[in-house]
Specification:
Chain lengths: ~200, ~200, ~200, ~200
DNA sequence: AATGAATGAGCCTTCATTCAT
DNA sequence: CATGAATGAAGGCTCATTCAT
């Protein structure tokens, strides 16, 4: 009876529903009740799948991290140069924003409402952002070293690009507009070019 | 009638207490009860001074906006060049972080936990950030026009600096470290110099 | 308008209702919901009067302690000798048991279901029992010193009487019968007499 | 078929774990979940071995009754006189208290938190206490008849000793100290002697 | 102005038990 | 014989706000 290939998929279903709600309303503003109502399960059933709300929160962030990794890989793996990949990240961001229900970065939003920097949620956020930072740094090292910069200088450029990426993401959310991303992309493009002309 | 210079002093006192709590714990995570307990007033007294929690939230953001403006003015008014003032913004940020209880930017945090972009809180955030953006743009226009850039190009530079500022602010909070600010400051310094050498 | 002499008596009303429920069902087995339902008040109203369920539990024990003290005083103040007062305590106990809804000693029951000996509830229990112990000791000292015993020996007798009292109270509850109290009373009577004949 | 001497060994294991938890935390305060977690079995497995939590509670009390019987037998079977055996009961109690995790008498605690005197748990408690009462009565009859008392008078002494035993047990728990047992033992010793000197 | 009692929906979590696999 | 998903009532407690005094 392979008709139900999502056997045991209830946990995933809960994560999926919660992901949408956590992202759109915020982690703290979303109650367990709404999640189980939308999932059409009993209170107790939720707690057979998750030890606590926080565990669901962690599952959400981990799923989102994997999702972003997949998206970015898919969007960039056909591109040849690191410079193209870097710029694609910003284009991708812009496309995303244009889609429905843009509420900024789930990780930054979660960090913003979680004061305790040592909490497991905050650690998950930091892990994701470290990964993103390293992605930009690796691409930047590849690009800028070819232009004659030292590894350290190239990594510093990657970090700066990361900060522009993060800043534009937050400000796109704040102003509910894509201009911060376009501006950041332009600046990054200039940075990439300047290196080539050195 | 200057005999009672503390008229409405209770209102300010509530704002002061709430400011600390909203900033340290987050707006949503802070309850009215804690505020009135720390202010040692009755529930009803709170509502004679504020129509709602949201109104207190707005008062908090407005007070914080004024406070930041004062801090920045005080920190930069003795500086001669726009470039110095721009760099001072980053230095100031770094000093602030080193102080106790750094929890990032109150405005960004509030935005992150407030989904409705049309709400009064979000409007207050946008107003503050617009002001900050314009500050950087004005300084950049002053600096980069002298270096031969068009107004539009100079403003674009100012916007990029703003995005680096915002990005470094968020990431300093995320990583609980000053390196994002130092990196951003270095990049901005390079941008300012590059213009001069053009 | 002195027609409502129980103004602000809502707190007392809650204690009264809770006292009955805590005693009959046990502290742990009684939920806040049942208390507020019987008091016909909202959840939140309960918490304007009591910080927590435990605070209500403490209020219950304190009220019960005062009540017992009043009962015992009333039952014994017309008696002349300490021996009579001691024996009256047992008679009183027996009468009480014959009344409806005897569920043993509220303090012992509470102690039995409260493992943490340092908790405030347990401290309240200990305070009450210390008071009762001292009552028996004082009466015993008065009685037995007249019979020639040393203060220490007399106090030891009082303590033994206390232990018989407690034991008979618990066993009356256990066997749902008055015989433990009658037996204890007989034994105490013999102890009191033996001293006189010494 | 002695080949599988651990048949039903899992049932005993559950009882052992539950015994510790029920005793230390109380029957009502201990959830099935904690028991199955510590036993490392599934929810369903628990219910294949026990019809209900109450059935496990009964098994616990029965095991404890047997255990106490064994302890007392072992502690007293080498003693020659009934008086020695009676006093040994108190000494034994004192030693036990000094051990770790003393939480009073499991039976009294269970009675205290079980209002329904006709429940199976309460019946089990009563059965145990009746057995203990008879033990003291039999020993007392043996001792006091030799001293010239009637059977009825001797049994009454045994009952009084039982009440002192129970009282001291409860108060040792209440005050978290051994003095109630020492006092009770002293009083019992006097009772036993007085009879001899009659 | 200031008080604090009153509201009732909501918070996250645990409860003992059943049942299909 | 063992598993663990499913149930839904109940656990104690907090929420922002209103209102009579």
């Amino acid at each position: 009876m392979p008709e139900n290939t999502t056997a045991g998929g209830k946990r995933e279903e809960i994560i999926e529903i919660a992901s949408r709600l956590f992202y759109e309303q915020g982690y703290g503003a979303t109650g367990i009740k709404q999640i189980i109502d939308e999932a059409a399960i009993a209170k107790g059933t939720f707690y057979t799948h998750f030890r606590s709300k926080e565990e669901l929160g962690l599952a959400w962030l981990r799923a989102r991290h994997a999702q972003w990794g997949g998206w970015f890989e898919e969007a960039t793996n056909h591109l040849k140069t690191s410079a193209q990949k870097i710029l694609k990240a910003f284009s991708f961001l812009e496309e995303w924003i244009s889609g429905a229900n843009f509420r900024g970065c789930a990780f930054i939003n979660t960090m913003a409402e979680t004061p305790d920097a040592d909490s497991s949620m905050r650690n998950e956020v930091a892990r994701h952002k470290t990964s993103l930072l390293e992605t930009f740094q690796d691409l930047a090292i590849d690009h800028f070293k070819a232009a004659g910069l030292t590894t350290a200088a190239a990594r510093q450029k990657g970090t700066a690009i990361y900060l522009l990426f993060e800043g534009s993401l937050v400000e796109a959310q704040n102003f509910n507009d894509t201009w911060p991303i376009q501006t950041a992309r332009k600046e990054v493009k200039a940075m990439l070019k300047a290196a080539n002309s050195t």
